[in-house]
Amino acid sequence: MKSVEEHLASCLRGIEVLSPIELQLLDAQGCVLAEDIVASTDLPVFDNSSMDGYAVHSVDVASASPTNPVLLPVVGDIPAGSSAMQRLAPGTAVRIMTGAPLPAGADAVVQVELTDGGVAKVSINGAVPAGRHVRRGGDDVLRGDVVLTTGTRLGPRQIGLLAAIGRDRVLARPKPRVVVLSTGSELVEPGSSAAGGQIWDSNSFLITTAAREAGAVAFRIGIVPDEPKQLLDTIEDQLIRADLVVTTGGVSVGAYDVVKEVMSRLGTVEFDRISMQPGMPQGRGVIGPDRTPIFTLPGNPVSAYVSFEVFVRPVIRQLLGAKTIYRPEVRAASLTGFSSPAGKRQFARGALGVEDGRYVVTPLDGQGSHRVRDLAYANSLIVVPEDVTEVPEGGTVKVMVLERRLT
Question: Measuring CA to CA, how many Å separate 345 from each of 90, 276, 277, 381?
Answer without folding.
Answer: 79, 4, 6, 12
